[in-house]
Structure prediction request, 245 residues.
Amino acid sequence: MSRARYALITGAARRIGACIAETLHQRGCDVFLHYHSSADAVAELALRLNRLRPASAIILQADLGNPDSINRLAGRVRERTGTLDLLVNNASRFFPTTVGSTSMGQWDELMDSNLRGPFFLTQALVPELALAGGSVVNLLDVHAARPMPEHAVYCMAKAGLQMMTLALAKDLGPQIRVNGVAPGAILWPEQESSSANQQKILNKTVMGRAGRPADIASAVVYLGLDAPYVTGQVLAVDGGRSLNM
Prediction:
């Protein structure tokens, strides 16, 4: 009888994170659902998954900008399973910053969620990932390589996460694989209300349309579970948008 597989998804309560969690659950993984403040949404997701397979979804709260909170999160995983097959660093903050008026608080918020938190959470879970022969999938952005106007700090943080993906693949192999998924236009930011701007982006996308959260989840599953000879790679799931950036 094969052992259970465990996956931790950060920012799992809503949007792409929730879709990734549901897809991994469908593939038979027991899932740790991390959230920061979306308590109601993550509770609804866990209830739905546990109805499908009892005791298969565990809720974990943590502020990934707080080192003690990161260590507690890793400790909860360690106490529950002792191993971890897949860590998906999905949690992210996104908002514009203007050069000349960017605050230290904005810098910290974007760097903590998009770079520092993923690094230190991965570091904390290296023993459990190595024991399972596991993998890490980082959620990047096509703008990690090509900057977005008025989003310098966000793009810098994602660029750092992309380099972290490559560097940790080298440092943690062969026991642990590390890869990244770089989404293009999948879900519009919640503060994005300009249909003209959305259409402008889609006009530069070869596929001529936005993608779906399931497109990202499928890529995460492939890299995380189904690609034992793939590490140090970044898969752009952007409908060809990066060809026209």
